Fold:
Amino acid sequence: MKLRLTDMAIKKLPHPAQGQVTHWDDLTPGFGLRCSAKSKSFVVMYGQRRQLKTIGRYPEQSLSDARAQAKRFFVQHQLGSLRTLEDAVSFEEAKRRFLDDCLSRNKPRTVADYSRHLNKHFRFNGGLKDISRQQIMKVVSGLSNTPSEQSHAYVAIRTMMNWSVRHGLIEHSVVPKLKLRTSARTRVLNEDELRQVLLRSQETPFPFGSIMQLLILTGQRRSEVGSMRRSWISNNSIVFPADITKNNREHRFPLSSMAKAAILSFPNTGDLFFPAATKSDKVFGGWAWHKVRFDEGLKCVDPYTLHDLRRTFSTVHAKIGTPIHVTEKLLNHVTGSIGGVAAIYNRHTYEEEMHRAMSNYEDYIAHLSGRPVS
Structure:
C-alpha cells in the first residue's frame, strides 16, 4: 500500500486488529511504515531478496529522522556495505563528540548544562549501540524527587542520542518521547531571608560574595553577571551584548549608586569582572561549589536557587510600585506586557523610568540591610 508519509498521515493511520500492514512512502522508495495492533515502526526494504529491516519506532523516532536514516542506509547498501553503524564508538566517545559539536552551535551555558547532566548522571561503559532504554530510564526515573534536574537530564540525553542518530552512530534513539511534569518555581525570599543573603554577600570574599551582591542589586541572570566586563559600562549603565542574553537582544541596564560602589570595590582583574580561577580569559565557573559554601553561613533561610534572587528582585519592584512594563525592561523580558505587536510600535527605551525604579529599589535595599552595600 503506497501513500505520501507525513506526520499527519501517520497519526491518522489505524492499527489493524490483527497482523501487520505496511504503508510504503511515495517520496522515498523502499521506505515505509509498518503498523501492527500495538505499534508503528519505520522499515526499509533492500536487496534482491527484498529483505525488511526495522530502523525505528514511531513516535520515539520522528518521520524526518527515519527518512534521513533510510536514505543513508540505501547509499551504504549500494556501496556494497551493510555496516550502518560505527560499531567501535563507545558511549563516552559519542558523548565527547556530541559536546565538541555543541561548542560550535550552542551558547556556553547550554554546553555547560549538557556536559554537567551527561557526566553526572549518564556514565555507561561499553558501546553506544549497546545502551538500552532500560538503562536510560532507570537514571531518569531515579531523579523523580528533583523534577527540574530530571527534566534537564532527560533533555540532555535525548538531545545527545538524537544527535547520534543524525550522525550515523546508532540506528535509532532508545530514549522515548516523554512529557515530564515540572512545577513552575514560585520561590521568593522574604525580607529577613533577603537581608541575610545580602549581609552574607558583603562578608564573603571575592569573587562569589561580589557576584551575589550584583545578583541582588541588578536582578540579572547569573550567566550575565558572571560574564560582566568593565568595557560594557558607560554613562551609569551596563550594556549586555546580544550574544550573552537569553533572548539574543542587547540589554542596557541602569547601575544604581550601590551597584557602582560595589563594582569600584572589586579587585582589578582586567576587563572581566569575574575570571575563572585557572584562566584569566575565561569567565567564572564552579557555581554549585561556591553556593554550597556560601549557604553554610546562612541561618533560617530556606533552600533557594540563584534564579530565585531574580524572582525576588521582580517581586520587590512590584511591592515598591514599579510599573510592570518597567520591571520587564529591567529584566530584559520581551514577551510580557509590551510584547508582540505592541513591542514593534512602542520604541520608547524607558531609560528614565528604569533609573527611577532602580533608585527606589536602592532605597529599599538600604533600609533592608541597615547599612549601604560596601
The longest strand covers residues 51-58.
